[in-house]
Amino acid sequence: MRTVKIVGPQERVDERDTPHPRMQRGELGQRLLRLRTSPSKDPFRRIVRSSNATDRRNCLTWVMGNTPDGAVNPERTEVPDPVAMAKRIKGVARFLGADVVGITYLDQAYVYSHRSGDSASRGEKDGDEVKLPHRYAICLGTAGDYNMYRANPSRISDAEYSVGSALTCVIGFNLAAYIREMGYPAMAHDSGHNDVNPIPLALMAGLGELGRNGLLINEKYGPGLHLFVVTTDLPLAVDHPVDVGVEDFCRSCEKCARLCPSHSIPFGDKKEVHNGVERWRINVDSCYKLRAFHADQWEVCQTCVVVCCYYKRDTWWHSLALWLVKGTPIPLRQLVVKPLLWVDDLIWGKEPHYRVRWLDYDSAYTPEEKPCKVPGCVAHSPSWKGKKARGRARQIAVQAKG
Predict the structure, then answer these.
(1) Nearest-10 Cα torsion for 38, 355, 256, 3
(2) How many Å apart are CA 340 and CA 351, to the nearest integer?
(3) Distance of alpha carbon 74 from alpha carbon 48, whole angstroms
(4) Hey, which residues does 193 pair with through a beta bridge?
(5) Of 165, 184, 341, the residue nearest 249 (C-alpha)
């Protein structure tokens, strides 16, 4: 597939080498370690992230992750038609609350090789080898609340990201239980028990394309999806990768790279092959380190989600723009993309800022304010422009030590 470029051998990733376990071990600095392991200032964060809770039993994802899988019903439902069964399972997932659903074969390249202590549960230990013999992966996603995400960076967008992810876990938990009741093994891979990497599986299941920001970009919901995976042996027809024009759009856009406060998103064309895949590679360390300096205001940066041209309200003009990009022959897509980028900047702004009030929260974020507390940081300033300013902001963000 043109938009999923596997150009070399792929090796299974050790979950212990992913960002959250590294944060837990203090490898990304003491500030992040304290942020990861201390009770959060916000109750919403405490009820969805067990390491930030005053009592883990108040965290639903921790409870689900430590609940043993139910037994598989010995009376198996026969599956004479995998196509019909795939349609049924997608209908069940949508009934349970999923906005998008796709199915793919479970490629072992996207199953972690070893577990980390950060997600090991149900009697598992740090460093245990992952053995997942299931054949299929059901990838589902729920759309984040548009207005709450637009409050980024704030406690409001934090709440949507954290609680939205937790509620998606509930959908996956119920879907896995539904399949086991049909007589087939199934496992929900939530934040408390995660053996797979959801983004590449979602790409193979046709839920979207990989964007410049390193996230899955769905045609309708952009990068604003909470992803979840259920693996199973239930016979299912699989979906395939899609080409909706995301890669062609990202190649010209660079909006997320320009506005990323930690400058973790690369400019230019794809030039790097990582683990056999040609992609724009994100500087994960600088992305995570910046949040340690903002714990009083927010904990999760969603800038690359909010500014994405694909992340807009579901309106007729947005649908028209997507149709134009997808329907234009590939060699001519740039003729459509650049005018659409101009329109996006004109209507929503080159550096969009929004103030949102919700419950007793107020994002209190205006273009004149600079939430970055790192001395000398100019990443959020309306005057942020030019190589010198960008270089200074990046140097501070990347070299900051805990």
Answers:
(1) 90
(2) 16
(3) 34
(4) 190
(5) 341
CA geometry: angle 126, 188, 191, nearest 5 deg: 50
Tell the residue number behind the tokens 């969603």, with chain if given: 302
Position 191 scores a pLDDT of: 57
The mean pLDDT values, 10 residues at a time, for the chain of 402 residues are 78 90 88 85 88 89 85 96 98 97 96 78 73 95 92 91 91 96 93 82 95 94 95 97 91 91 89 86 90 82 92 84 89 89 84 83 59 42 38 44 40
Q: Report the predicted TM-score, pTM, of the whole model to 2 decimal places.
A: 0.86
Contact 339, 328 (CB under 8 A): no
Residue 170 has a CB neighbour count (10 Å cut-off) of 18
HEC string of the chain equals: CCCCCECCCCCCCCHHHCHHHHHHCCCCCHHHHHHHHCCCCCHHHHCCCHHHCCCHHHCHHHHHHCCCCCCCCCCCCCCCCHHHHHHHHHHHHHHHCCCEEEEEECCHHHECCECCCCCCCCCCCCCCECCCCCCEEEEEEEECCHHHHCCCCCHHHHHHHHHHHHHHHHHHHHHHHHHHHCCCCEEEEECCECCECHHHHHHHCCCCEECCCCCEEECCCECCEEEEEEEECCCCCCCCCCCCCHHHHHHHHCHHHHHCCCCCCCCCCCCEEECCEEECCCCHHHHHHHHCCCCCCCCCCCHHHHCCCCCCCCCHHHHHHHHHHHHCCHHHHHHHHHHHHHHHHHHHCCCCCCCCEECCEECCCCCCCCCCCCCCCCCCCCCCCHHHHHHHHHHHHHHCCC
What pLDDT score was predicted for residue 13? 92
Q: How far apart are CA 8 and CA 124, in angstroms?
A: 32
CA angle 398, 20, 354 (to 5 degrees): 65
Question: How many residues are present in the chain?
Answer: 402
Contacts of 401 (CB under 8 A, 6+ apart): 29, 31
> How many angstroms separate the CA atoms of 60 and 141, rounded?
18
pLDDT at position 192 is 56
Pairing of strands 216-217, 209-210: antiparallel
User: Whose structure tokens read 């800038």?
Assistant: 303
Contact 209, 247 (CB under 8 A): yes
